[in-house]
Design goal:
By secondary structure, the chain is an alpha/beta fold. It has eight helices and eight strands. Strands 1-4-3-2-5-6-8-7 form an eight-stranded mixed β-sheet, with helices on both faces.
Length: about 300
């Protein structure tokens, strides 16, 4: 399902882009974010998306599931039956704040956490045919023809099955989008092969996880995922290739995240940390650049912004 998002005021009015010059104006740049649930786009890459939009890039956001089994912070916002619809609307609002012009829902059901009964639901992303999901993503990439793709890191942040699935499928789709022998039926729809120059995985460095955990423990707050091995969370610091200062866009990022009202627990561990600390943490974003085989990317595009 495809939704057009009205552009925000973040426009430069310039039209020239020379990729080798790393200009501030990106009006010829197209970027695609591929994430598992509504709100996954926000914390780790919301600043980068806002920065790209502000400098004129065209943004497409692909959301694989509708977040059907996420939390409901306030029962007045949604019910179990309406949560998917409510979270789609929350993402539309968040995308508009960020500056995303094109929003796509793949409409798979949320698979829930590891070992939950939701993993077995036949409508879930976990149960979907990999070839079918990858083909849908390949079609989007060939249609949009982006220079940049952002998606989940290989650990899925904290191991969510849908994050891991999207990581695998998005990576495979980027690899196949430029292959003329892959999904040849798309040619009939005018979707010619397209090689994506830059593939970035959104990272949460383990030192950042540890820092937030220590701040929570010092404040008497039980950290999320406290039962997990710390080494399974986030990504190794050495995997980070690109550190991006998004402090200029942190207000936009926070405003966008606040659109996901059903997922914001006012008494949750993150909400209980000081606003100053959270603002500082959210002002820097981390990525692992993994140029796909045969890609034409030169250097590190995000690092030059």
């Amino acid at each position: 399902m495809r939704h057009r998002i009205s552009p925000t005021c973040f426009r430069t009015g310039l039209t020239y882009l020379d990729m080798s010059m790393r200009p501030q104006n990106l009006s010829q740049l197209s970027a695609v974010g591929i994430f598992a649930h509504p709100d996954d786009e926000g914390f780790g890459s919301g600043g980068a998306l806002a920065l790209l939009a502000a400098r004129g890039a065209r943004l497409t956001l692909v959301c694989a599931t509708n977040g059907d089994v996420g939390q409901i912070s306030d029962p007045s916002l949604a019910t179990l039956e309406t949560l998917a619809q409510v979270r789609q609307e929350e993402l539309r609002r968040a995308a508009a704040v960020t500056g995303v012009q094109d929003l796509r829902f793949l409409n798979y059901r949320d698979s829930g956490m590891v070992g939950s009964r939701h993993n077995q639901n036949m409508a879930s992303l976990h149960q979907a045919s990999p070839a079918r999901v990858v083909g849908r993503l390949v079609g989007i990439l060939r249609e949009v023809r982006p220079q940049v793709v952002l998606t989940h890191y290989s650990t899925g942040g904290y191991g969510h099955p849908d994050h891991l699935t999207v990581y695998r499928h998005a990576t495979r789709a980027v690899a196949l989008a430029g292959d003329p022998t892959a999904y040849p039926e798309q040619w009939a729809a005018g979707l010619a092969p397209w090689t994506v120059p830059y593939l970035y995985y959104v990272c949460f460095p383990r030192t950042q996880f540890r820092r937030m955990w220590q701040e929570m423990l010092s404040a008497g707050i039980t950290p999320p995922f406290a039962s997990k091995d710390a080494e399974s969370l986030g990504c190794p610091d050495e995997a980070v290739t690109t550190t991006l200062d998004v402090s200029q866009f942190v207000d936009t990022k926070i405003a966008s995240l606040n659109c996901h009202r059903t997922q914001i627990d006012p008494n949750g561990p993150f909400a209980r940390l000081s606003p100053e600390l959270m603002r500082e943490i959210m002002s820097t974003e981390y990525f692992a650049l993994a140029p796909p085989e045969g890609a034409g990317g030169d250097g590190d595009l995000l690092a030059g912004l």
